[in-house]
Amino acid sequence: MKHGVNLAPFGAAADPRLLAELAREAEDAGWDGFFLWDHINWRDWGPEIGDPWVGLSAIAVATRRIRIGCLVTPLPRRRPTTLARQTVSLDHLCGGRLVLGVGLGSPDPEEFEDVGEEPQMKRRGQMTDEALELLGLLWSGEPVDFRGQFYRVRSEGFLPRPLQRPRIPVWVAAVCPFSARPLRRAAAWDGVVPMLAEPRAIRSDEVRQAAAARPAGRPFEVLAGAHSGDDPQADRQRLSAYREAGATWWLEPLDPWRLPLKGLRHRIRQGPISS
Predict the structure, then answer these.
(1) pLDDT for res 245
(2) Closest CA to 195 of 213, 214, 211, 171
(3) Which pLDDT score, from 0 to 100, does residue 266 have?
(4) What count of Cα atoms within 13 Å lies in the side-chain half-sphere of residue 217?
(5) End-to-end C-alpha distance for the chain, whole angstroms
(6) Backbone angles phi, psi at 49, to 5 degrees
(7) How far is 206 from 180, CA to CA, in rounded Å?
(8) Please, which contacts does 47-52 make with residues 24 or more away whose CB atoms are closer than 8 Å?
(9) Is the dihedral of CA 172, 173, 176, 178 positive or negative?
(10) Whose CA is closest to 151, among 135, 132, 130?
């Protein structure tokens, strides 16, 4: 099992220079990944929110080993053509360590309505499926003539291609209890990010079927995670339960309303929960 930090770039952590420092410390402390939330606004937080893609660029040049990416980017409010350029450039910048985590975005419609984006979850799901299909075509570097319900692109080819082959890994968010559509979406790509999932949900037939649908030899990541507590033994037992259920990554969410900057840095320097 790999271990990652999932950090909200809010407050002091909105500064890309600080994110680079924290990511470098995470790498030194033995973490395997450093991921950022992707929000434009947050109802329970003030105006200090950093752009995750600028932050990831700083992280890319400050680190050498760890996986990086957004967990997760709401695809319905990202233009696929712009995102294709951003992700390919970042994949080259970090030496092929980028992961693209995607989802529909917050179920709270106000987070989307407040910035003029699509609030309805059904349409967001349709936009996500179409955007993923288009991203795969753009990453291929081949000529594209795409005419969908939401996006239209004609191009002789988006170059350069991603550094990773066959492409940048895509992990898809799915809210527990799972419905069929998000897991089918995840099965077509490289992993699932189960939101609010207990070990029994990760062990479910639906998740196993999604993993089994992958082509032979292609890994399928299953992510889990929670805040660590004050009892190391309890943390190890919880981690073990998720590992036995089939989780391949453990993510520790770090956010400014639980931990001030000093606490964030301390938790990162402690390193992953030991087995």
Answers:
(1) 84
(2) 171
(3) 94
(4) 1
(5) 10
(6) -130, 125
(7) 8
(8) 48/10, 48/11, 48/12, 48/14, 49/9, 49/10, 49/14, 50/9, 50/10, 50/13, 50/14, 50/15, 50/16, 50/19, 51/9, 52/9
(9) negative
(10) 130
How is residue 263 written in tokens?
């606490």
232 class by beta-carbon count within 10 Å (0-12 exposed, 13-18 middle, 19+ buried) = exposed
**Which ranges of 63-107 would DSSP assign to H, the alpha helix?**
80-93
pLDDT tens across 219-231, in order? 889 998 888 877 8
Residue 205: pLDDT band (50, 70, 90) is low
Q: What is the pLDDT of residues 103-154, one digit of tens each?
A: 999 888 888 998 898 999 999 999 999 999 999 999 999 999 999 999 999 9
Average pLDDT over the chain, rounded to whole? 90
Side-chain-side CA neighbours of 245 within 13 Å: the count stands at 25
Looking from the CA of 120 toward its CB, the CA atoms found within 13 Å total: 4
pLDDT given for residue 194 in this prediction: 82
Higher pLDDT, 133 or 207: 133
List of domains in the chain? 2-270 (3.20.20.30)
Distance, CA of 17 to CA of 13 (rounded, Å):
9
Amino acid symbol at 2: K
Between CA 273 and CA 250 the distance in angstroms is 9
Q: List C-alpha distances in Å: 216 to 137, 184, 220, 274.
A: 22, 17, 10, 31
Q: Which residue type is seen at 70?
A: C
State pLDDT tens for residues 83-93.
Answer: 999 999 999 99
